[in-house]
């Protein structure tokens, strides 16, 4: 059985638009999904990111958070015939509150995975107490002191670490120093689950708002790294990638380092196949469609 990836919405966040893309419509609220990704078809199912613990955490930022019953992890897993105890591995692209907040729902027999650099940064205080809360950081430390409950990656950009056959992680950086990409090998090419290296593919990569040079992405309004680090991370995420999955936007089809298609109906659709180019709506000229899908 081939590896499959299922985007699941762990909750909606309403925030200022300029927090997504630098200088984009300041003062205008926008609502985005907070996505996790369920990987099936391998030795064991893998969950990438777990969403937020609660809505109260967002009040200090003036944001709104919503999670319906259909957005719970239990509901998502049930759509695939799985229960919480079936998840042996949780991988975090990074551990901001909207990505690691529901780790506590899983037993210590589930191994939570993240980069060592990300855990160090979370405990450093450099982003204040909001994005890395004491509660989530302490939970990770508790797992660190429980045999088998935490795995720390030491990827530094020169190598990857394998999780199961066909699934590995590499350092991506950009959003935080310890951000990683989860790489999944599929029949039609590499899937890059890239976390928050970008928020809004349209305004950052497809039609960048602020940049004129070719292949030059616009950065987000929420990052812990330099502008160059963030741009480099975005370009690295596109390199060698066929399918790009980020945490707050629909899946994208990639060719030649550019986004050429979108799959807007993939989120929370158990039957959607994000690993098949034919599922994507192409952005290129119609006469090039057959050529691009075959690439």
UniProtKB/TrEMBL annotation:
Keyword Zinc: yes
Domain named Metallo-beta-lactamase: residues: 33-248
InterPro entries listed in its UniProt record: MBL_superfamily_lactonases (IPR051013), Metallo-B-lactamas (IPR001279), RibonucZ/Hydroxyglut_hydro (IPR036866)
SMART domains, per the entry: Lactamase_B
Entry keyword annotation includes Hydrolase: yes
Keyword tags: Hydrolase, Metal-binding, Zinc
Signal peptide coordinates: none
Bilayer-crossing regions: none
Similarity annotation: Belongs to the metallo-beta-lactamase superfamily.
Protein name stated in the entry: N-acyl homoserine lactonase family protein
Species this chain originates from: Rhizobium oryzicola
């Amino acid at each position: 059985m081939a590896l499959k990836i299922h985007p699941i919405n762990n909750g909606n966040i309403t925030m200022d638009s300029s927090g997504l893309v630098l200088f984009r419509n300041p003062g205008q609220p926008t609502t985005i999904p907070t996505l996790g990704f369920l990987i099936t078809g391998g030795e064991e199912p893998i969950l990438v990111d777990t969403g937020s613990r609660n809505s109260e955490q967002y009040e200090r930022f003036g944001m709104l958070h919503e999670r319906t019953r259909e957005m719970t992890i239990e509901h998502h897993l049930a759509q695939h015939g799985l229960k919480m105890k079936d998840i042996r591995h949780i991988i975090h692209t990074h551990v901001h509150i909207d990505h690691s907040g529901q780790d506590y729902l899983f037993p210590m027999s589930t191994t939570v995975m993240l980069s060592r650099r990300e855990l160090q940064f979370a405990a450093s205080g450099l982003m204040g107490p909001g994005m890395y809360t004491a509660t989530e950081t302490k939970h990770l430390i508790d797992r660190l002191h429980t045999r088998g409950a935490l795995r720390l990656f030491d990827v530094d950009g020169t190598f990857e670490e394998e999780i199961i056959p066909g699934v590995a992680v590499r350092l991506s950086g950009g959003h935080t120093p310890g951000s990683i990409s989860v790489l999944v090998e599929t029949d039609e090419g590499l899937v890059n689950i890239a976390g928050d290296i970008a928020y809004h593919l349209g305004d950052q990569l497809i039609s960048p708002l602020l940049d004129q040079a070719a292949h030059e992405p616009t950065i987000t309004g929420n990052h812990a790294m330099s502008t160059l680090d963030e741009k480099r991370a975005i370009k690295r995420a596109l390199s060698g990638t066929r399918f790009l999955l980020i945490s707050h936007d629909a899946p994208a089809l990639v060719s030649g380092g550019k986004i050429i298609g979108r799959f807007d109906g993939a989120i929370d659709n158990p039957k959607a196949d994000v690993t098949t180019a034919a599922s994507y709506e192409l952005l290129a000229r119609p006469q090039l469609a057959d050529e691009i899908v075959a690439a």
